[in-house]
Amino acid sequence: AQAGEIPDGEGIKIDAAVLGTVDDVAVFNDDGEFFALDDTCTHETASLSEGWVENGIVECPLHAGKFCLKDGAVQSMPATVDVACHRVIVSGADIRVVPN
Ligand code: FES
């Protein structure tokens, strides 16, 4: 992905087939820092890339479960299971996801 494709406070979804991952991956821009988590919320099946990003947290768009962008740890109910986290390497305008 390119950094300019992801506005601050938002995420984009990268198809699993592109990355060779089991789940699609969401890449987020939180105030110029980039993070990657599995895209599917662990509570039900909402797409976290459509959630709200602020202060190191993404809030699920369906029931407002929250996850830490740094490690995928659950921050609030109704989600109870952490979401998988992936490494992000930023090089200039290029953002590369290294799947776990
Ligand atoms: Fe994400 Fe329910 S689907 S909190």
TrEMBL record:
Family: Belongs to the bacterial ring-hydroxylating dioxygenase ferredoxin component family.
Pfam families: Rieske
GO molecular function, one term: 2 iron, 2 sulfur cluster binding
Lineage of producing organism: Bacteria, Bacillati, Actinomycetota, Actinomycetes, Micrococcales
Gene3D superfamilies given in the database record: Rieske [2Fe-2S] iron-sulphur domain
Name of the protein in its database record: 3-phenylpropionate/trans-cinnamate dioxygenase ferredoxin subunit
Organism: Microbacterium thalassium
Keyword Iron: yes
Entry keywords, A to Z: 2Fe-2S, Dioxygenase, Iron, Iron-sulfur, Metal-binding, Oxidoreductase
Rieske domain residues: 1-97
Cofactor: [2Fe-2S] cluster
